[in-house]
Amino acid sequence: MKEYVLLVFLTLCSAKPLLHPSYLTLKNMMLKDMEDEGDGDADNSLFPTREPINPFFPFDLFPTCPFGCQCYSRVVHCSDLGLSSVPSNIPFDTRMVDLQNNKIMEIKENDFKGLISLYALILNNNKLTKIHPKAFLTTKKLRRLYLSHNQLSEIPLNLPKSLAELRIHDNKVKKIQKETFKGMNSLHVLELPSTLLELHLDYNKISTVELEDFKRYKDLQRLGLGNNRITDIENGSLANIPRVREIHLENNKLKKIPSGLQELKYLQIIFLHSNSITKVGVNDFCPTVPKMKKSLYSAISLFNNPVKYWEVQPATFRCVLSRMSVQLGNFRK
Fold first, then answer.
1. In angstroms, rounded to a whole number, what is the distance separating the alpha carbons of residues 123 and 44?
2. Least confident residue range of 60-74, 118-132, 202-216, 309-323
3. How far is CA 316 from the centre of its chain?
């Protein structure tokens, strides 16, 4: 019996944890995040720096771990196991769950219930078609969520406001609802499906639109960026969405008409009211090439801007449907 116990002890001491490539990448990112946040609580860190109480037993001899998974230092690896559902006995203090490369079709309401310390969740390359609206109700510290290469038709509802990174490309999402990302002040990495037809990012805190922001969304038809803090739209940004029909940029801080509108031949509706636009050029909306075919505008809103509307040339709106399609109005502070 003594020989058996000694053999088990030696095996445990010499065993090494399974280190997945995704684990190594996320580990570096998480450590950096914790440094940035100035988290000095070693008990709450994902990778504790404090020495264990008993140096001879650096981890529990009989840890609670889902069958077939690898568990170490508050990380649960359950990838490539052919799982059809989320394991039910994930430890409550888990900081990262890796469930990629399985056959999970649905995330249920209580799959992650009680995981209040969860920081990263990897669900890439499953068969997900449905995520319960309350699935992330208790994961209020979730920072990184990977859902790419699945079959989701919509972005999950009620995402944690703590989210800093969401990757959900290569799914079947066609439309992003207006309220999806509301209140997510820390979201800085966002990968969405390239098949999007509608993207609504209204009521956020976006300050600039850069050249690469819409490069993947060639089929986009409706773009909502209203009620943000946009001061600048980089030249050429809108050329990346040549099929767009409707753009909302109202209630921002733009000082000029975005460049490239005249080249969007399908654009019919553009909302620019309640900005800081001071001038409207004669070629800001309509093409300068005579033979270029352009859909007529049905709505151009410019009211509540400091524009001297009496200085706007009539030819500026030569490609609108009718006089009623343009709203200038007076600027009032």
1. 24
2. 60-74
3. 37
Cα–Cα distance for residue pair 248/105, rounded to 1 Å: 35
Among the ranges 26-35, 174-183, 200-209, 307-316, which has the highest mean pLDDT value?
307-316
**CB 257, CB 284: distance < 8 Å:** yes
Count other Cβ atoms within 10 Å, centred on residue 245. Answer: 17
Residue 299's DSSP bridge partners are 269
6 sits in which H/E element = helix 2-14
237 and 125 in one domain? no
Q: Which residue from 95, 104, 93, 62 is spatially nearest to 77, judged by alpha carbons?
A: 95
Within-domain flag for 188: no
Q: How many domains does the chain have?
A: 2
Residue 184 domain flag: no
Q: Check: CB of residue 267 under 8 Å from CB of residue 243.
A: no
| Same domain membership, residue 317 and residue 208 | yes
**Which amino acid appears at position 175 of this protein?**
K
Closest C-alpha to 30, from 135, 116, 123, 142: 142
Among candidates 295, 200, 266, 317, which has minimal Cα distance to 327?
A: 317
Q: Domain boundary residue among 124, 142, 175?
A: 175
Residues 255, 256, 257, 263: is their CA dihedral positive or negative?
negative
For the sheet containing 96-98, what is the strand order? 70-72, 75-77, 96-98, 120-122, 144-146, 165-167, 189-191
C-alpha span between 326 and 299 (Å, rounded): 6
